[in-house]
Amino acid sequence: MDLKYTPEQIAFRQEVRTWMQANVPKVPLQDFDTEEGFMQHRAWEKKLNEGGWGMVTWPRELGGRSCNLIEWLIFEEEYWRAGAPLRVNQNGIFLLGPTLMEYGTDEQKKRFLPRMASCEDMWAQAWSEPGAGSDMAAIRTKAVRDGDHYVINGQKTWSTRARWADWGFGLFRTDPESERHHGLSYILVPLDLPGITIRPIRQLNGLAGFAEIFFDDVKVPVENLLGKEGGGWGVAMATAGFERGLMLRSPARYQETARRLVSLYLANREEADRDASIRDAVIKAWMDAEAYTLSTYRTASKLVQGGKIGPESSTNKIFWSELDIHMHETAMRILGPRAELLPEGPDADGVGNWLDGFLFSLAGPIYAGSNEIQRNIIAERMLGMPR
């Protein structure tokens, strides 16, 4: 792997940096789990797309820039360096989008991707169910074929962004006699259909970032099937690979957190150095963020040359989720008792959003498939160990 950027890549980086400097909001947007914050983020996504940055790896005719994955990593580095808002439609652009590229028909790509890039369509992930979280093969929600429609009955839970979303993508059991990963189909569902009820689920911070989705005789056109009927498991594993291995958590996210952590340490060094292990923890965070970056560049180079993401995506997922916790726990140790203060508190100068980040980091080992499940995958599929 050549770690030197080409002149074209350097010019691309400068183009991204210039646009971000001119367009990133000067005042931070409100949390996108509030109604006002969601609308602000949706407007930002539209502006981003108008500048040609909605999803740079997609073909130009589908709302992108036809960039390769190395250029996407460069874009992400500049995006995070500029302090740009979090991507509210990340389930769509980072998870479903690449899956549509691989499994969607030409008609489906033209129908969904441009509207996804502009956030005209907001997407929710509708996989987990009560009793079927990390073990998606236990899914029970049924989609029974009736002519040119599927009739869906069941429940999804922990559906990210479902409260505000227009569409959901999920796995449904289209063969009622099937078991485990057989007989599942990947279906795209408008969330405003008759028979759908959405109930918000509140997080630790009191905001409803998740929701339950109830389906009662919901009729969805068969044309919304992604891939083959009964072949949903393979499609879902591709989405899971994007979620765990590359697209959802770019290394720039952790590089930026590491930079902030170093700045926090330097600003509080006199107190932090009373515990020598804090300095070591900061150094480890920086080194691990850089290691994850190099690993991701290696994976991207492999994909650019025609390779695919395999079970090694599980190692990535464990690494970035545990790195996120380590960095935020280190920040909590540096801040001491002040770590419990909210950033708007009268004595919270210099505290920032570390508390909110810490609370969110605790979910990392659970979402995208729990780390316990990922370790089983590594043991069985990478190391060849018995079940």
Give the name of the CATH superfamily of the largest domain: Butyryl-CoA Dehydrogenase, subunit A, domain 3
- Which percent range describes the beta-strand content? 5-15%
H/E element order: HHHHHEEEEEEEEHHHHHHH
How many separate domains?
A: 3
> Helical segment tally?
12
Architecture of the largest domain, CATH level 2? Up-down Bundle
Which strand order does the major sheet show? 1-4-5-8
Query: What is the CA-atom radius of gyration, in angstroms?
Result: 21 Å
What is the average per-residue confidence, as pLDDT, rounded to a whole number? 88
Write up this protein.
The chain is of the alpha+beta class. It has three domains: 7-88, no CATH class; 124-230, Butyryl-CoA Dehydrogenase, subunit A, domain 2 (Beta Barrel), CATH 2.40.110.10; 249-382, Butyryl-CoA Dehydrogenase, subunit A, domain 3, CATH 1.20.140. It contains twelve helices and eight strands. The strands form two sheets. A four-stranded mixed β-sheet has the order 1-4-5-8. It has a four-stranded antiparallel β-sheet with strand order 2-3-7-6, with no helix packed on it. Helix 7 (251-267) runs antiparallel to helix 9 (276-304). The radius of gyration is 21 Å and the shape is globular. The two termini are 35 Å apart. The model has no long low-confidence stretch (mean pLDDT 88).
